[in-house]
């Protein structure tokens, strides 16, 4: 009995301690949250900052549009820290934000803009965007435009801002309003096997997105068509359907906001007009001219100059995975002007010579950003060359692209041994004066033990997913029953496997698909051993036996399709916890380079990492189904 009482008292003490710790953590979180929500500053327009104006040189303006902001970067939402890094770098370059009124005056009356003018937008009207970006705008004295879909106002979805929120944002002086249109919806949708899916709302689209190809369109951009591409509606019905969206948009904004935002973004962009069909384009053009004073009609490039139309402006949508130099690299080649890239830790940067691209040393990581359609290249500065080397690193650049390590390299890279991960495959190569020779190649899906899927199996999975979605969201019980019966029939169909002789399905790598590989290299004499994720990936004999230098290289992986960024040809190689040692065979090998944090500095860094883990536990982010726009 006494033992039970002691056990009960001990459990109660543990509970009290746990509650005290949790309350303490919650109080800390509450403090930072309240501080984040309070607005104590007022936006000061650039004219009040004594910004140098140029009356003779038209430098135009850069337009950036972020999809949304979250506490941590998770495609497609950019994290607070990454957004701050982006905008702080632009501030340090001398950029100031301009307003919609400034753009109108620039085009309509020729009013000059600051030499470095930035127009900043945040799309889709997400509540977390407003919460997480407010303090950054205040700190940098930046002004942004919040774009919304008025259809979301009536849904009462807490993810999205409502008119009262928008009015409060305007009162802070750091925001003005724009619109993405009445709704986000998709028409004429086909999967990658040309199965016709028809019209999809964002929820259905997100569910089947893994099986879609490029063959779909936005609600306002075309006639609604059948599986043969034949319009299912007359011209009059098409005009009525499209006009309805503009009319209801006008009505909702006028009633609930008091005015219709004058900035519009037509979805999709990059059509060359205002739709994929001339008659559809003419209807959109009529309403755009009637309701709005400016329209961002294109996406992919950031630079706007006079001579363009106010209804054909262009914007760039930075992605959540872009490091700061990625953004600066894109802007540099858009504006064709010099840009100062960020370097990060100066002490670590002095260990490397940047030959191509841009390098940032941050925390325990080297981020090497390539030139557009080209590469980034770093050389480890060292008076001594090495023949035998041990190297370990976490490669965290995205799967679409190349991260490469050169060993035993000479200065002009005519001799070397190299190990690369390129588009999710391992390559071992060497060069001994002639052309680069491939010694070994390994598909890393195979290395991971993934069972290959056949094209018939993938096609069946795509068709089953569509039937599952249509059954779940059917407008009536009778339709749901029909879809469910078809789903059961489809599940019973035979789909030959690769082992049974069917062709393998090889997925297209998305440009924003994350990569994360732990790589260990041991090069001694003629023997090169490669271990990836604690599993041997290669044991190769090499013939390049000279001593040499160490290089890091990155390169873009080709034209990866993304409806949001058709023109992104820059790649960030991410080399985390890079350790290079001279492989002498001694018990204590000589460290050549180590990017890991040490002693007290390392303890602080680890503490911050653990704190983020605690925050993730208390404040898990609601998963967001990406809508590829």
UniProtKB/TrEMBL annotation:
<feature type="transmembrane region" description="Helical">
    <location>
        <begin position="19"/>
        <end position="40"/>
    </location>
</feature>
<dbReference type="InterPro" id="IPR011330">
    <property type="entry name" value="Glyco_hydro/deAcase_b/a-brl"/>
</dbReference>
<keyword id="KW-0812">Transmembrane</keyword>
<keyword id="KW-1133">Transmembrane helix</keyword>
<keyword id="KW-0472">Membrane</keyword>
<dbReference type="InterPro" id="IPR051398">
    <property type="entry name" value="Polysacch_Deacetylase"/>
</dbReference>
<protein>
    <recommendedName>
        <fullName>Poly-beta-1,6-N-acetyl-D-glucosamine N-deacetylase</fullName>
    </recommendedName>
</protein>
């Amino acid at each position: 009995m006494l033992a039970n009482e002691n056990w009960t008292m001990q459990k109660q003490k543990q509970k009290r301690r746990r509650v005290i710790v949790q309350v303490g953590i919650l109080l800390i979180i509450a403090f930072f949250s309240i501080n984040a929500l309070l607005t104590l500053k007022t936006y000061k327009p650039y004219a009040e900052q004594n910004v140098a104006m140029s009356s003779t040189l038209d430098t135009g303006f850069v337009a950036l549009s972020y999809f949304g902001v979250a506490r941590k970067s998770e495609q497609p939402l950019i994290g607070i820290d990454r957004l701050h890094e982006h905008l702080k770098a632009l501030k340090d370059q001398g950029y100031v934000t301009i307003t919609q009124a400034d753009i109108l005056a620039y085009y309509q009356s020729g009013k000059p803009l600051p030499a470095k003018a930035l127009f900043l937008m945040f799309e889709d009207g997400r509540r977390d965007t407003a919460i997480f970006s407010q303090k950054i705008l205040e700190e940098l004295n930046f002004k942004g435009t919040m774009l919304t879909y008025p259809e979301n106002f009536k849904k009462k979805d807490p993810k999205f801002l409502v008119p009262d929120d928008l009015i409060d944002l305007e009162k802070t002086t750091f925001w003005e309003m724009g619109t993405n249109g009445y709704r986000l919806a998709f028409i004429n949708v086909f999967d990658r096997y040309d199965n016709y899916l028809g019209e999809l709302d964002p929820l259905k689209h997100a569910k089947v997105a893994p099986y879609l190809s490029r063959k779909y369109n936005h609600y306002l951009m075309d006639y609604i068509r059948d599986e043969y591409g034949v319009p299912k509606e007359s011209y009059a019905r098409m005009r009525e359907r499209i006009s309805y969206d503009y009319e209801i948009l006008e009505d909702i904004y006028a009633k609930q906001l008091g005015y219709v935002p004058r900035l519009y973004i037509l979805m999709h962009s990059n059509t060359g007009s205002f739709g994929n069909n001339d008659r559809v384009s003419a209807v959109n053009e009529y309403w755009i001219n009637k309701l709005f004073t400016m329209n961002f009609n294109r996406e992919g490039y950031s630079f706007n100059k006079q001579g363009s139309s106010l209804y054909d402006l262009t914007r760039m949508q930075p992605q959540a995975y872009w490091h700061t130099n990625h953004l600066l690299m894109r802007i540099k080649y858009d504006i064709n002007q010099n840009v100062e890239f960020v370097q990060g830790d100066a002490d670590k940067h002095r260990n490397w010579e940047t030959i191509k691209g841009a390098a940032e040393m941050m925390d325990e990581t080297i981020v090497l950003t390539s030139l557009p359609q080209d590469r980034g290249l770093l050389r480890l500065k060292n008076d001594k060359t090495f023949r035998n080397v041990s190297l370990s690193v976490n490669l965290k650049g995205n799967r679409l692209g190349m991260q490469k390590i050169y060993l035993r390299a000479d200065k002009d890279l005519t001799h070397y041994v190299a190990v690369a991960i390129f588009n999710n495959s391992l390559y071992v190569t060497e060069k001994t004066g002639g052309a680069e020779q491939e010694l070994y190649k390994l598909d890393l899906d195979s290395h991971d033990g993934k069972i290959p899927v056949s094209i018939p199996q993938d096609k069946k999975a795509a068709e089953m997913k569509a039937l599952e979605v249509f059954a779940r969201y059917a407008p009536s019980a009778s339709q749901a029953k029909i879809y469910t019966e078809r789903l059961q029939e489809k599940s019973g169909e035979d789909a030959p496997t690769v082992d049974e002789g069917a062709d393998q399905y090889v997925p297209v790598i998305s440009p924003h698909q994350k990569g994360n590989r732990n790589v260990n290299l041991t090069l001694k004499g003629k023997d090169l051993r490669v271990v990836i994720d604690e599993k041997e990936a290669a044991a190769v004999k090499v013939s390049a036996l000279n001593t040499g230098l160490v290089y890091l290289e990155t390169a873009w992986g080709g034209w990866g399709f993304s409806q949001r960024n058709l023109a992104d040809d820059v790649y960030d190689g991410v080399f985390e916890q890079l350790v290079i040692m001279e492989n002498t065979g001694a018990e204590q090998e000589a460290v050549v380079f180590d990017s890991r944090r040490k002693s007290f500095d390392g303890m602080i860094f680890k503490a911050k990492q653990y704190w983020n883990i605690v925050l993730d536990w208390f404040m898990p982010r609601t998963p967001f189904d990406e809508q590829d726009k």
